[in-house]
Specification:
CATH superfamily of the largest domain: Histidine kinase-like ATPase, C-terminal domain
Mean pLDDT: 83
Helix content: 40-55%
Shape: rod-shaped
Strand content: 25-35%
Number of domains: 5
CATH class of the largest domain: Alpha Beta
Number of helices: 19
Distance between the termini: 146 Å
Number of strands: 23
Largest sheet: 6 strands, antiparallel
Structural class: alpha+beta
Length: 639
């Protein structure tokens, strides 16, 4: 623009005078403006352009930058001889939506937000005012572009907006008319678009403000308030929320809006209801359980002790008990084992000492209570076996009496046979006396003597069976009993050509067994086995006695390959005065064996096939063995 010529420009829609270039080149005036002093006018014209804290550039119709201030250079770098789109965007072609073109065409100021590149190639966000410079003739030779850098402010705004939208709760901004001014993404997803609506109508469907309105309380006193509210979602579902309202204060402390933050606690409340139900359910089960249940927390305090456990431990309803006292009532080391073991500690049959000092037979189990690998304490279940023990004892006694009854029933038949034999002897004796036949008299005497001996044998055996002897259990080696019986019969078996063997896979722990009674049982079984082999046709007869332990039970097996038994013999062998030995047996041996086994809490089973052999198997569960007798051996021997 020639320095000698002066053109007058006016800025549309404003009343400002602005000089885009130094006054030596062009003078811009507003005819109605008041002229400042020369010094001020000179300073304004020479320095204001560069003192303004925004980037300013003058662009001609060829979109060349003909002038720019220092703020522009600091942001965009070198501008001389360059196109505006090259400086702003770093591109050779013009911008598709060029605001300069629009300002040249329409002659009005345009304000818009743009994103460009700074001199380092970084993104810059700025507000740009594009102002056309219009001559008096109406021409627009230049436009002035003024850019306010909002990059940092926009970054902060975006971060706050991201935080506002991404917080895991619904956030609403509410004004003093209780209208929703703004909502975050979470609130929009749950509630839909509520901006501009009254909160009580949009959130709850009410026609007036809520009585428990936390926003109202905050507006009244400017303080934080919390509450529980029930809202309706966009899907018309009911949700429960924990609501917090805070004032949105400006720098002077005043406020005309509040922020309401709401956390959906619907699932939490459902879980709470579920936990309350589960707690009530478990509490009912524990309280009404017929088995005792008690627990000790990590601090050693007894936290649970149900009524059944109180009955077992003989505690009064409100009597307190410490963890140490409880540990002393349990079996030795049991409490410690539960606290140190990885899994359940189970004792199927043991004893506790109750508060009255009485021994109580119980079944006991204990487990550690853990959460995330941390011990929370221990829990125990206990079952009183007193009634069960009594029933077992009653059952054993009933079985013994039943066996006696069966024996008595069979006694009639034996007595009848003996009576017939006695009558025959008396007949021979009386007729021999009448006829003076000495041989007949002698024969009758022999018959009477033999049957009298049989009567004596029967009576003694029956009395022994019916009365029995008191079981005197001691800790004995189960295998030693069997080994002694085998040794006792070894010579007889060898003399009969029968191989007699004893098998023991591994040593057996001592058990509470009446040595003499169990010796008698095995003696009966081994003797019968040898007799069965003696009358069999097997060319290589043998008898094997085994002792072993399996599943906490002691087993004896007496196996032979003798004559065996058919179905009828097996059916009768334990029930009457049955014998296969003719006059040589009473039929009480196996009955006595069964009785002794039952008194030891065990059972005896039989497997047999004719001409193949027989197996008698005795099973003695350790937990059902009799208690060890406390009477000393010398007292037993003297008695």
């Amino acid at each position: 623009m020639p320095a000698c010529s002066a053109q007058h420009f006016h800025e549309p829609e404003t009343a400002h005078v602005f000089c885009p270039v130094p006054r030596k080149q062009v003078c811009l005036m507003n005819k109605t403006a008041t002229h400042p002093p020369k010094e001020l006018a000179a300073w304004l014209q020479d320095n204001l352009f560069h003192a303004v804290p925004m980037a300013i550039a003058v662009i001609d119709r060829n979109f060349d930058l003909i002038y720019a201030n220092r703020a522009f250079e600091q942001i965009f770098g070198d501008w001389q001889g360059r196109k505006c789109h090259t400086v702003y965007k770093g591109q050779a072609a013009m911008c598709p939506q060029c605001k300069g073109t629009q300002a040249f065409r329409e002659g009005r100021t345009l304000v818009h937000e743009e994103v460009g590149l700074d001199k380092h190639g970084g993104l810059r966000r700025y507000i740009k005012h594009t102002v056309p410079l219009i001559t008096e003739q109406g021409d627009i030779p230049y436009v002035i572009e003024m850019c306010t850098d909002i990059t940092e402010a926009e970054q902060i705004r975006r971060e706050y907006q991201l935080l506002f939208d991404q917080v895991p709760c619904s956030v609403l901004i509410i004004d003093k008319d209780y209208r929703i001014v703004k909502t975050n993404a979470q609130a929009r997803r749950m509630l839909g678009d509520l901006e501009g609506r009254h909160c009580y109508r949009g959130l709850k469907g009410f026609d007036s403000k809520c009585k428990e309105c936390t926003a109202r309380q905050t507006f009244e006193d400017g303080q934080l308030h919390t509450g529980h509210h029930i809202w309706r979602t966009r899907k018309d579902e009911t949700v429960h929320l924990h609501v917090i309202t805070v004032p949105l204060q400006v720098s002077d402390g005043s406020f005309d809006m509040v922020m309401e933050m709401a956390v959906d606690v619907t699932q939490t409340l459902k879980l709470q209801d579920g936990l309350r139900f589960a707690h009530s359910f478990l509490e009912t089960i524990i309280t009404t359980s017929m088995d005792g249940i008690f627990a000790v927390d990590a601090g050693g305090n007894v936290s649970i002790f149900n009524p059944a456990a109180r009955n077992i431990f003989a505690l009064r309803p409100n009597q307190q008990i410490s963890g140490d006292e409880l540990s002393g009532m349990l079996p030795a080391e049991f409490f410690k084992q539960v606290n140190t073991a990885a899994g359940q500690i189970y004792s199927p049959e043991t004893e506790i000492t109750n508060a009255a000092g009485q021994k109580v037979p119980v079944r006991l189990a204990g487990n550690q209570l853990k959460m995330d690998g941390l011990s929370m304490g221990t829990a125990f279940s206990i079952q009183n076996l007193s009634e069960l023990k009594k029933l077992e004892d009653d059952k054993l006694e009933a079985e013994r009496l039943a066996a006696v009854g069966q024996t008595v029933a069979g006694l009639a038949h034996g007595v009848k046979n003996l009576t017939t034999a006695l009558e025959g002897g008396m007949y021979m004796l009386s007729t021999g006396i009448e006829k003076g036949n000495l041989e007949r008299i002698q024969k009758g005497m022999v018959m009477l003597d033999r049957n009298t001996q049989r009567i004596s044998m029967f009576v003694k055996a029956f009395l022994s069976f019916a009365k029995g002897r008191e079981i005197k259990a001691r800790l004995n080696d189960p295998a030693e009993i069997a080994r002694e019986v085998v040794d006792m019969y070894a010579a007889r078996a060898d003399g009969l050509g029968i191989r007699l063997a004893f098998e023991l896979s591994r040593p057996l722990a001592p058990a509470a067994i009446d040595y003499e009674s169990m010796h008698e049982c095995l003696t009966n079984l081994v003797g019968n086995a040898i007799d069965a082999c003696r009358v069999s046709t097997n060319s290589a007869p043998h008898v094997t006695v085994r002792a072993f332990e399996e599943d906490e039970a002691i087993f004896y097996e007496v196996i032979d390959n003798g004559c065996g038994m058919d179905y009828e013999v097996k059916r009768k062998v334990f029930t009457t005065f049955f014998t296969t030995k003719g006059l040589g047996g009473t039929g009480l041996g196996l009955l006595m064996t069964k009785k002794i086994i039952q008194e030891h809490g065990g059972r005896i089973d039989l497997e047999s096939e004719p001409e193949k052999g027989t197996t008698f198997r005795i099973r003695l569960p350790r937990k059902r063995l009799p208690k060890v007798s406390e009477r000393p051996k010398q007292e037993e021997s003297s008695s």
